[in-house]
Design a protein that fits this description.
NADH Oxidase; 5-stranded antiparallel sheet; alpha+beta
Length: 199
């Protein structure tokens, strides 16, 4: 059996995949077995040097609450928001039943450009969205302030050089997601060597 069999269904899913807003998700989220399948998809991405420059934190329930507490604390500690706004942001981590914190974790093990390693982490995030969609779940990849906060990073155990690549929420979609405008392929693709290029 080919490792890359032709699949019209897979192509159709990719061409029609749509993120589901967290406000349109509800319980149940993916089971442990389903999350393992979703995370297994994350591990099957291009990875120059075979160094696996990513890792993942899976948070549910009380653990999401703890992240909410950390975000609230970080907002105040870093002077980004007052107590009232910070209290509202406490609910950020509990917007959907399951949350995966995807961490880009570059390695110096081999001379692979850090940029390529970050791209691999992004590909892992995308594979999770696609896998979740294939399994009938809703998923949304968010970043926002918390992804760039050093206080949040430290509280989650990130080390120097690591970055949060995304906060990916999973749940059961409550509505069919609507399509949004997409770029025209003609505006984003050049067929052949670009005119005006030089050696």
């Amino acid at each position: 059996m080919s490792l890359n069999p032709k699949s019209d269904d897979a192509l159709n899913l990719i061409l029609n995949r749509r993120s589901v807003l967290t406000r349109n998700m509800a319980a149940p989220g993916p089971s442990r077995a389903d999350m393992e399948a979703i995370l297994s998809a994350a591990l099957r991405v291009p990875d120059h040097g075979k160094i696996a420059p990513w890792r993942f934190l899976v948070l549910e329930g009380d653990d999401q609450e703890k992240l909410g507490d950390l975000i609230q604390h970080a907002l105040v500690a870093e002077g980004t928001a007052d107590e009232k706004v910070a209290e509202k942001m406490r609910g950020y981590a509990t917007q959907a039943p399951v949350l995966v914190v995807a961490i880009s974790s570059p390695s110096a093990e081999r001379p692979i450009p850090v940029w390529e390693q970050h791209l691999s982490a992004g590909a892992a995030c995308m594979n999770m969205l696609t896998a979740a969609t294939a399994m009938g779940y809703g998923a949304q990849w968010l970043t926002g302030w918390a992804s760039y906060s050093q206080t949040v990073a430290k509280g989650l155990g990130l080390v120097d050089g690591e970055q949060i690549a995304g906060l990916i929420f999973f749940g059961t979609p409550q509505d069919t997601p609507t399509e949004r405008p997409r770029p025209d392929i003609g505006d984003k693709v050049i067929w052949g060597f670009p005119e005006g290029g030089s050696q």
